[in-house]
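Same chain as my last thread, 332 residues:
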Amino acid sequence: MSTTTSLLDQFGPVIRRRGPLTRTHAAVARGRLTVGFLGGSITAPGGTSWSDALVAWLVDACPGVRIGVENAAIGATGSELAAIRTPAEIIDRGCDLVFVEYAVNDFGTEPGLRARAREGVLRQLRRAGCDVVLAYTHAPDLQADTFAGRVPVTIADFERLAEHYQLSSVWMGLHALREVQRGLLRWEDWLPDAIHPGPRGSLSYAQSVSTFLAEALVPSAGAAATAPALPAPLTPGAGSACGSCRSMRPTAPGRGRCGAGRPVPVPRRCCTPRRPAPGCAWPSPAAGSCWRSTSASTRARSATASTTAPGRSPSATVRPGRTTWAGSARWS
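reply #2:
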């Protein structure tokens, strides 16, 4: 056995099961499940992403259940922006089960800001009663630590939050890396550009998560009927500013005030109130109104056109900004 293989084995399981998926079980039982995704371009929908493959698996694994998908992943964004977008794009849209993938995009963020933003996102989701699963991918920035037998700090920090809030996690990148070591996956098929997985790499990521769900979705007599209480935050200020507010007011370039009047930083991708960039939370030019459409995909949700999903029957439709995969049941 090579030294690299033995180092990869010492990390332990790819899947770490913690709290039960209480709300997900209830949603499946009533025949309507809404799945949400937060992350970067690795998770964004595109027909061959791991999120697309996972949804296809869910449709097959949950016959008779109508599955809606809110994929709010946006490329080149991290937890800082997600703290603002989560209420409107995930919670308000009734997501039952939410996958959070920011280990790669948060890597270069200042540790204090990263900790507050991540915990703010998780606290919002848990406070709303969503089931949350953390998903970790792979990138060159994580490779040195991984091959040296160390858990990359961006993943270790997420695991600390996972333990505190009893959230299950899946290290998808480690699963794929082990497949490469066993000769089951070629590196160039996994990560053609070193960060974004190709179709085969996305399938590997999805398989690791579906393995987790295959067991987590099995009804258990001992499963908790209600989700555990929300513990105190680990990070001072987590979720207390823009992450818990629904609007912001510009006060100066790069600065603003949240709905409660607290000063908060405006996301770096923002421009001006009259020319908001994707993900910006500036109010609209109209007095008293709030520019709440936080991405191009969100603004497209009002469109009514739909197309048949590739490889699916006509009952499986893809709407701009929102993918809905139809099971055999109907929306009530």
